[in-house]
Amino acid sequence: MTTWATFSLQDSASPLMEQLTFFHDHTLMILIMITMLVSYLMFMLFFNKYTNRNLLHGQTIEMIWTILPTIMLLFIAFPSLRLLYLLDEINEPSMTLKTIGHQWYWKYEYSDFLNIEFDSYMIPTNEMINNNNNNNFRLLDVDNRVVLPMNSQIRILVSAADVIHSWTIPALGVKIDSTPGRLNQTNFMINRPGLFFGQCSEICGTNHSFMPIVIESIPMKNFI
């Protein structure tokens, strides 16, 4: 999870998030190169003393500053398209988790695993204080966590019962809209045990800030 003074991305917990992190770093390096080049040219432009009364056009430099940005955009576009298709790939899921967004809590169903259903509400701050519970994170922990096996392909089906929500877990690289009357799906694989926190990232009403998501990743043997 994100802590104080964390300026970079969270540590990835899935192969998809690793790829997203690599793409972020790749794009950032290109942006730094462009910024340095433009800054150098502007600096030289401000401080040089050269004048040329006969300079009316420069077709060569115009060709260069048209073709060069095109090539740079291709270096961003190809990895981006590859990643878009990777994010939509469904790879023979081991199990399916169904998620339904409500105002303002999540309902989960293990539809192909013992048909378990439960609601997941945020633990109120006053309840934490009254129970003297220091093990939970304020405004981020829930009463019923989603327990999932690690190193398994998980398909998640997302919908909503009332308004548009968005089921988002940054460490897994998952952000999917839950829309009333529509069933969206995506998949992910958690490659290490731990607790992974997320929140609804679509403004869905008064208590939009208070419908967190918590996934607990455990080995398959313990899950069964």
From TrEMBL:
Regions crossing the membrane: 27-47
InterPro entries, A to Z: CcO_II, CcO_II-like_C, CcO_II_C, Copper_CuA, Cupredoxin, Cyt_c_oxidase_su2, Cyt_c_oxidase_su2_TM_dom, Cyt_c_oxidase_su2_TM_sf
GO BP term, pick one: ATP synthesis coupled electron transport
SUPFAM superfamilies registered for this protein in UniProt: Cupredoxins, Cytochrome c oxidase subunit II-like, transmembrane region
Keywords, in A-Z order: Copper, Electron transport, Magnesium, Membrane, Metal-binding, Mitochondrion, Mitochondrion inner membrane, Respiratory chain, Translocase, Transmembrane, Transmembrane helix, Transport
Reaction catalysis annotation: 4 Fe(II)-[cytochrome c] + O2 + 8 H(+)(in) = 4 Fe(III)-[cytochrome c] + 2 H2O + 4 H(+)(out)
Subcellular location: Mitochondrion inner membrane
GO molecular function: copper ion binding; cytochrome-c oxidase activity; oxidoreductase activity
The family this protein is said to belong to: Belongs to the cytochrome c oxidase subunit 2 family.
Protein's UniProt name: Cytochrome c oxidase subunit 2
